[in-house]
Specification:
Helices cover 29% and strands 31% of the residues. With 100 residues, it is of the alpha/beta class.
């Protein structure tokens, strides 16, 4: 299994790399807490490095959206992998994801 990691690209852009599944997602729940703690503003998560995902990956994105809203941060997702896009579409959540 390829454990997920978050990499800082610049002050407002982070890249998520690895697999998102029911085993790896719990360790990522608070991975963007520090970037969100800067308060109101914008944050972009590039998902181009996600090699594999299941519905737990989608749940992670929804949780990150909740955390961002709570801190008044505009969160955007970039390069949503096809597998994750299809899970979101089937779950009727694709239109709710803030995509770049």
């Amino acid at each position: 299994m390829n454990s997920p990691q978050i990499e800082k690209l610049d002050d407002t852009t982070f890249r998520l790399n690895g697999e998102l599944n029911m085993y790896s997602v719990p360790q990522m729940l608070n991975a963007i807490s520090a970037p969100l703690s800067t308060g109101p503003g914008e944050l972009c998560i590039d998902l181009g490095g996600v090699s594999r995902s299941d519905s737990a990956g989608l749940a992670l994105l929804v949780e990150w959206m909740r955390q961002a809203k709570e801190r008044q941060v505009k969160l955007r997702f970039r390069n949503l992998p096809l597998q994750l896009r299809e899970i979101a579409r089937i779950s009727d959540l694709l239109s709710l994801l803030p995509l770049d």
